[in-house]
Amino acid sequence: MDSWLKPFAQGDTIRFVRGKYLIDHDIVVPRGMSVILEKGSRFTIASGRSLLINGPLTVQGTGVNPVFIRPQDEGLPYGVIAVHGNGRTVCDIRGVRMSGGSTAWLADRYHSGMLTFMDCQVSLENCTIGGSKGEDAVNVKRGSIQMLDCSFEEGQDDLVDIDRSTGAGPWLHLHRSNRW
Amino acid sequence: MNGDGLDASGSHLLVQDCLFVGLRDKGVSIGESSQVFSKDCTFRNNGLAIAVKDLSIAHADGNAFIGNRIVFGVYQKKPVFGGGVLTVYNNTLEGNGQEREVDSRSKIVSSGKVDEKVEEAFNVTEDR
């Protein structure tokens, strides 16, 4: 495990409590470990750097205490936050305010969204995502997604890109008050 | 704002009660054999509100289209695919530049009521 992660590891979970965190190098969370970003956690990410998660991701921001993800330097975009799942991996994202990312190659894969999910079951609620400097603000590949009360704005190119997401039922559902 | 609001490729999607505003390119871009139902959304001041391309099938019901350059574009973009099909039901159009742009491989069908099988396929309910 990356030594940067070790202070936040509790068994099979990486937990970030309320506070400020700087990601200054590419970080890969080991396969199968869950990541939780608690309300009030604030991340800044250095230029071109990324976070790759290989398991479930939970973001617990609220209206009063969102989770912020921003570039360390407003003029220098970071790479991406990406989740690689196994098709059943759950990503429950609430109350995130995210801006200033771009694209990245990680683990021999191209990630077109500053927030990228591959093979995940994704729920986004009460999120504001904008100011992406790359191809997409959000990219979902081969997964499912539900969105509720989200706002996407001011991307350099596409805002939400949904690719080859298959399964039974209405597995993609963007709903109520999503604003582009 | 450049680019598309929502870009779907090879996907099945219900887009309900959403707002697409000021997108210079497309509000919703539906491509590569996607199936999308746009229901009760508002599209305001976009370049092209809804694009249906490349063997995709789309339905539009209960939407408001206001001040868009083009409301519906249905066409083949990639030669490996065919055209697209869009079925339009009861939508509101106001102050748009052009209602539709359709190529010879594609079509727009008008219908008064959404078939139950379509609602079922997209799991449409009035109040979610």
Layout: helices, strands, pairs:
The complex is a heterodimer of chains A (180) and B (128).
Chain A: E1 9-10, E2 13-16, E3 19-23, E4 27-28, E5 34-37, E6 41-45, E7 51-53, E8 57-60, E9 67-71, E10 81-94, E11 96-99, E12 104-106, E13 109-111, E14 113-125, E15 128-130, E16 136-141, E17 144-148, E18 151-153, E19 158-163, E20 172-175
Parallel strand pairs in A: 2-5, 3-6, 4-7, 5-8, 6-9, 7-10, 8-10, 9-11, 10-14, 11-15, 14-16, 14-17, 15-18, 16-19, 17-20
Antiparallel strand pairs in A: 1-2, 12-13
Chain B: E1 6-9, E2 12-16, E3 19-21, E4 26-31, E5 35-39, E6 42-44, E7 48-53, E8 57-61, E9 64-66, E10 70-75, E11 85-88, E12 92-94, E13 98-102, E14 107-110, H1 116-121
Parallel strand pairs in B: 1-4, 2-5, 3-6, 4-7, 5-8, 6-9, 7-10, 8-11, 9-12, 10-13, 11-14
Account of the protein in words:
The complex is a heterodimer of chains A (180) and B (128). By secondary structure, chain A is mostly beta strands. Chain A is 0% helix and 54% strand. Chain A has strands at residues 9-10, 13-16, 19-23, 27-28, 34-37, 41-45, 51-53, 57-60, 67-71, 81-94, 96-99, 104-106, 109-111, 113-125, 128-130, 136-141, 144-148, 151-153, 158-163, 172-175. In chain A, the strands form three sheets. In chain A, strands 1, 2, 4, 5, 7, 8, 10, 14, 16, 17, 19 and 20 form a twelve-stranded mixed sheet that branches. Chain A has a six-stranded parallel sheet with strand order 3-6-9-11-15-18, with no helix packed on it. In chain A, strands 12-13 form a two-stranded antiparallel sheet. In chain A, a hairpin with a 2-residue loop joins strand 12 and strand 13 (109-111). The relative contact order of chain A is 0.13. The model of chain A has no long low-confidence stretch (mean pLDDT 93). Chain B has 128 residues and is mostly beta strands. Chain B has a single domain (6-116), classed as 3 Solenoid (Pectate Lyase C-like), CATH 2.160.20. Chain B is globular. The interface between A and B is medium-sized, with 28 and 27 residues. Strand 19 of chain A pairs parallel with strand 1 of chain B, so a sheet runs across the interface.
